[in-house]
Design goal:
CATH superfamily: Divalent-metal-dependent TIM barrel enzymes
CATH class: Alpha Beta
Strand order of the largest sheet: 1-2-3-4-5-6-7-8
Structural class: alpha/beta
Radius of gyration: 18 Å
Number of helices: 14
Strand content: 5-15%
CATH architecture: Alpha-Beta Barrel
Number of strands: 8
Distance between the termini: 7 Å
Largest sheet: 8 strands, parallel, barrel
Helix content: 40-55%
Shape: globular
């Protein structure tokens, strides 16, 4: 199926750090009918007063926008083996979850946070701790009808099975996967067929951006080596409905080309 770029824009999220919504970009998002995935970084959660979050949430909800949120990720260690580091990570997640009732998002994205160089020798302990962390986050999100989607960053190869294992150990029906297709090429092994085969039935959200494999460029779709057509066709042939999709353009002017590119190959009704 082929649809217009405007129709694509109505069916996807666009990432935006929370502070930018307090500036002119907030108005531009509303004027252009965009649905934001709002990044709740730790600095913003600590720096801005509650009224700022309530004001942004109210503006977008009153405008009928579909919202998703991205939890803090810098310095976060959801399965940390150090009790103090783990406690600090969980406090940050709780601080982000405080705003679920205001924003009422469709999903909250969290990085899985596994790095083999740190945890491969204590994998079972890491899995149990990560599962407990995300069980709590998922429980808080379920109270407002939101999914929690675990995003890949540095995971590669058969580490895709860690997503299934954490989800199984957590036992939370609303705990799913966010497949970041740019990260899989820039940081992972680029094995899209293997990752999709392993995780397709858990994928509830896609992060779409492009790169050439050398670094995480977050470039416009169609300008790099991420096989977006293959990814979308694979999922469209197996999922009964479109997953949530977030575009992650990091350069001025890269959103419109990404929308045009998606419109040319959109596979869903």
């Amino acid at each position: 199926m082929r649809i217009s770029p405007a129709a694509v824009a109505d069916r996807v999220q666009v990432n935006i750090p929370f502070p930018f919504l307090l500036q002119s970009l907030g108005d531009r998002f509303l004027q252009n009918g965009l649905h934001p995935e709002i990044g709740l970084d730790a600095g913003s959660l600590c720096r801005f007063p509650p009224a700022s979050f309530r004001r942004v949430a109210r503006r977008f909800r009153q405008a009928g926008r579909r919202l998703t949120l991205h939890a803090p990720f810098q310095d976060m260690a959801p399965g940390a083996l150090d009790d103090e580091v783990l406690a600090a990570t969980r406090r940050r997640f709780r601080l982000a979850c405080r705003w679920l009732t205001e924003f009422r998002p469709a999903a909250l994205v969290c990085h899985l946070g596994y790095e083999a160089r740190h945890y491969r020798h204590d994998l079972d302990a890491w899995l149990n701790r990560a599962a407990a962390t995300f069980r709590e986050v998922a429980h808080r999100a379920a109270a407002v009808g939101a999914l929690v989607a675990l995003e890949n960053v540095f995971e590669q190869g058969d580490e895709n099975m860690l997503f299934r294992e954490v989800i199984a150990r957590a036992g939370a029906p609303n705990l799913k996967v966010c497949l970041d297709v740019g990260h899989l090429l820039a940081f992972g092994d680029g094995d899209y067929a293997g990752w999709l085969a392993a995780l397709w039935d858990h994928i509830a959200l896609l992060h779409l951006h492009d790169n050439d494999g050398s670094h995480d460029a977050h470039a416009a779709l169609g300008t790099g080596r991420v096989p977006v057509p293959f990814i979308l066709e694979f999922l469209a042939s197996r999922l009964s409905r479109q997953p949530l999709i977030t575009l992650e353009p990091h350069q001025e002017g890269s959103l419109e080309p990404s929308l045009n590119y998606l419109a040319s190959l959109w596979p869903w009704d």
